[in-house]
Amino acid sequence: MKKKGSSLKNRLYMLLLVSLLPLTILITYLLVMTNNVSAQYDEIVEKITKANEYNINFKDDLDYSMYIIVVNSERANDIIDTNKPVQMIDEAREMFGTLSKEADTEAARTRLSGILKSLDTLKDRVIEIEESALNSGSYEVNMERLDLDIRVLTELIQEEIQFYIYEQTRNMEALKEGIRSRVEKAITITSILLVIILIGALTISRRIMEGITSPIRHLCRAAERAGSGDFETRAHEEKIDEIAVLNASFNRMVEEIGKLVEDIRVEELNLRAAELRLLQEQINPHFLYNTLDNIIWLAESKETQQVVSMVSALSDFFRTTLSKGKDYISVKDEEAHINSYLQIQQFRYRDILDYEINIDEEAYDCEILKLTLQPLVENALYHGIKGKRGLGHIYVIGCIREGLLEFQVKDDGIGMKESRLNEVRKIITGEIESTKEKGGFGLFNVNERIRLNYGHEYGLKIESAYGKGTCIWVTVPAVKK
Predict the structure, then answer these.
(1) The pLDDT of residue 263 is above 90
(2) For residues 44 and 40, what is the distance between their CA atoms, to the nearest angstrom?
């Protein structure tokens, strides 16, 4: 049983993870440390702010309120709210009680406990003086009690608040020293971790990249040997799923080429000769190893998504090219085949090539002779678009009309003059023989295969205008699979 390898996508994700995970952990550590320090600082500032509000206003407001009550005992209610002193004390006690629960040092807790006891005593004294003053008590006695009980207690509370603020200020200074120590420690740890991360990431990344690029280089060399006519060459088995599929497709492709060559030598049949020559034309090793070189370049540049897209497109291209030896495939598969081809070529010619495929879905289930449209698309690219300056477009249109499959392969490339168009028409129909200088072999081959498989009433029709572009019509019977 063949051991399943890891996928190219997983390896590239692992490479990304190796690069990003350690840095993410380091950044998270720094953020958590910064957030903790900021939270401690904000907590101390909030406590100081709350205490400072009472340090500034509490004594003066309470002393004044009690003085008004004592001096104007009979009409005190008309001047101020006589319940205000007790309310002020209750509010202060609630706030300092909360601070006492949140105190994080023994000194602060002690100060707050003293403030709370003083507030309880102050409340008792305030109630006693209010009752005495409001019930016509002795003015002199109440004034004396105001000085000895109220003002002394508020002075004591104010001092306790100031001491508490001082303790919190010392905590802030200690926090500052702690921050400095943490920053120095964080810088040291960060520097060490950064060096370790860089060394580890470079080492692991190099191994991962070598594991990706090495089998692709081996496949390139095998493709070069196959291009030189050595059809006994085979690509090695690999542990990466996508590369393994590509190698298997390449091996099947080379093996199929060898078989077809031998069949031609033995059988000497026109149909097989046309199919073999067309197949060899479509699997031009220059196209293959140029594409693989692009994949290597993308992988070394860490263009993960582009590598996956290119490998998938190339794998789909050869899978359809081979099609398990079948002569007929569905229109949908033929569309996927030309889409894979154009996707690969668009990467190479991104500045000059754009394309659009628009085939009706009702035609997808129809059968078509394999490699009918792709040579026409290739012809449009190399003889139309590449001869034009600037961006060119290729359009592939297909539909079912009156029981026939009709396709158009159009381009807005350089086009042909009338004399050349007439020559190409004669090459397609076989009136004159195609040569390397004359060209037109791909069109002749497609037309010949269509006529041999469907009949002489079917085939290609071509129209062109110099400077405007070329359009090729393909007509075959619409036969459902």
Answers:
(1) no
(2) 6
Q: Does position 72 have pLDDT exceeding 70, yes or no?
A: no
Residue in the structure block whose two tokens are 């690999």: 238
The whole-angstrom separation of Cα 407 and Cα 413 is: 19
CB 372 within 8 A of CB 446: yes
More confident residue, 48 or 387: 387
Q: Beta-strand (E) ranges in 35-75?
A: none
The position carrying tokens 């490699």 is 371
89 neighbors 122 (Cβ within 8 angstroms): yes
Q: How crowded is residue 359: how many other Cβ atoms within 10 Å of its Cβ? A: 19
Number of C-beta neighbours around residue 93 at 10 A:
18
Residue bearing tokens 């060899």: 280
Instruction: Give residue-wise pLDDT tens across range 330-351.
Output: 999 889 889 888 888 888 788 8
Burial of 289 (0-12, 13-18, 19+ CB in 10 A): buried
The residue count of the chain comes to 481
Q: How far is CA 382 from CA 52, 113, 187, 345, in A?
A: 83, 91, 59, 11
Q: At what angle do helices 8-71 and 106-134 cross, to 10 degrees?
A: 30
Residue pair 397/408 in contact by the 8 Å Cβ criterion:
yes
Residue 149 DSSP one-character state: I
- Identity of the amino acid at 281: E
394 sits in which H/E element: strand 392-401
> By C-alpha distance, which of 283, 272, 169, 151 is closest to 222?
283
299's tokens: 């992988």
What's the CA gap between 385 and 362, in Å, rounded?
A: 30
